[in-house]
Design brief:
By secondary structure, the protein is an alpha+beta fold. It is built from seven helices and ten strands. The protein has helices spanning about 5-15, 30-35, 50-60, 70-80, 200-210, 225-235, 255-265, and strands at about 20, 25, 85, 95, 105-110, 115-120, 130-140, 145-150, 155-160, 165. The strands form three sheets. It has a six-stranded antiparallel β-sheet with strand order 3-8-4-5-6-7. It has a two-stranded antiparallel ribbon with strand order 1-2. Helix 5 (about 200-210) packs across helix 7 (about 255-265). The radius of gyration is 19 Å and the shape is globular. The model has no long low-confidence stretch (mean pLDDT about 90).
């Protein structure tokens, strides 16, 4: 069985799983966050990207997909590796909405008109409140479809992209072990002091894990004063990532965010 079919099989087996309820409403309490190291904080949060990370981990393919609860970070992760396309592919991670930041899932098949996906934190009726894992059928050319991240499967990837088609990587010498793919993700430009953004929760969790916390009131989507203080502590230890001319810098910055991830154990 190829790697694409392995993760697809794991994802499809979750079809029918439903999140928790409280007072008659779905509450985003689900099993996936607690089982993915580094994403435990994302329980009770929108979990479509966490579901994909969980599937990749269970398939033994964690290095081929971004480990993040942020759809925007997932898009950036694939684009950094030049593995992002406007065309579907089997096993690809599909991203929806403006900039790909609204929702995500896994493509298990496609044809000229539709993509067929497995998606977490969605529903059967198309409303905004997701409640579980579903198999979905969506029009390929719907404006809601932003694009696709292509994992570097060992067998290559079956794609509708004329520039890719079915491409397998060049064989390497048996004596040369393959380096594991990085799980470091990019920082969204909207993540800055005073702003609200989904990735701020990830930033706060990384700061705590790397020893710059605790952050009173975390984990939230607000880049507030306590988060800024923790970032300041990071800069005190790593002054080279501080903005030039500043003795106190509350903004983490793209290069600092990458260093923070390394300190928190990501590779």
């Amino acid at each position: 069985m190829g790697e694409a079919q392995k993760i697809i099989g794991i994802a499809k087996a979750e079809n029918g799983y439903r999140e928790g309820q409280k007072s008659g409403h779905w509450n985003n309490n689900q099993k996936y966050s607690d089982q993915v190291p580094g994403l435990e904080w994302s329980d009770f949060q929108p979990w479509c990207a966490t579901f994909v990370s969980w599937c990749a981990m269970k398939a033994g393919l964690a290095g081929l997909y971004p480990r993040t609860a942020s759809c925007e970070s997932g898009v950036a992760w694939f684009k950094q590796r030049k593995r992002f396309s406007a065309y579907p592919a089997v096993g690809a991670q599909v991203f929806y909405g403006s900039g790909g930041g609204s929702h995500t899932g896994l493509v298990y098949n496609y044809d000229d008109t539709y993509i067929y996906t497995v998606e977490g934190n969605t529903n059967a009726n198309g409303s905004a409140e997701g409640d579980g894992v579903y198999l979905k059928k969506r029009k390929r050319r719907d404006t809601y479809v932003f694009g696709y991240g292509y994992p570097a499967f060992a067998e290559g990837i079956t794609s509708a992209d004329p520039a890719w088609k079915t491409q397998a990587p060049k064989p390497t010498k048996p004596s040369t072990p393959a380096k594991p793919a990085s799980t470091i993700v990019a920082l969204a430009s909207a993540v800055k002091p005073g702003a609200r953004h989904k990735q701020v929760k990830e930033l706060q969790q990384l700061l705590i894990k790397a020893g710059y916390g605790p952050i009173p009131g975390s984990v939230t989507d607000l880049y507030g004063p306590e988060t800024q203080k923790a970032v300041g502590r990071f800069h005190n230890k790593n002054p080279k990532y501080r903005s030039k001319g500043k003795s106190y810098d509350p903004a983490i910055g793209p290069s600092g965010f990458k260093e923070l991830q390394k300190e928190a154990g990501r590779k």
